[in-house]
UniProtKB/TrEMBL annotation:
Top-level taxonomic group: Bacteria
A GO molecular-function descriptor: DNA-binding transcription factor activity
Record domain HTH arsR-type: where: 5-113
Record's protein name: ArsR family transcriptional regulator
Any matching Pfam family: HTH_5
Species this chain originates from: Jeotgalibacillus soli
InterPro entries assigned to the protein according to its UniProt record, in alphabetical order: ArsR-like_HTH, HTH_ArsR_DNA-bd_dom, HTH_MetalResp_TranReg, WH-like_DNA-bd_sf, WH_DNA-bd_sf
Keywords associated with the record: DNA-binding, Transcription, Transcription regulation
């Protein structure tokens, strides 16, 4: 981690660039930017759970048209570099964008590239 907690270090930025080097992963992030417009109502996400905006893996898979295993792999890559957050609620797994990491990545690009 960089001395400034609001900045990514080069290694973290490279991992994000790698994740964004795939059109489907970029599309997933774009869809998750406005989940209310891009996905049906998420029945199991309860406001009290503190995970508003989360979208079930099966809905993401349906929207992208790729297999369940590839969807899970892509979401795992996005999770590992910090671009998304995950929460299990009951038997379902939900993902949403990690806006803080996205803002940190934006600052990295503005200051370093």
């Amino acid at each position: 981690m960089n001395k400034d907690l609001n900045l990514l270090d080069d290694e973290q930025a490279v991992e994000i660039f790698k994740a964004l080097a795939n059109q489907t992963r970029v599309s997933i992030l774009q869809m998750l930017k406005d989940p209310d417009s891009n996905f049906s109502t998420q029945a199991h996400v309860i406001k009290d759970e503190g995970f508003e905006g989360g979208v079930c893996v099966s809905d993401i898979r349906s929207k992208t048209g790729i297999s369940q295993s590839t969807t899970s792999q892509y979401l795992s890559i996005l999770l590992q570099c910090g671009l998304v957050e995950m929460k299990r609620i009951g038997q379902w797994t939900y993902y949403r964008r990690n806006e803080e990491t996205i803002k940190r990545f934006e600052r990295y690009i503005c200051q370093n590239i």
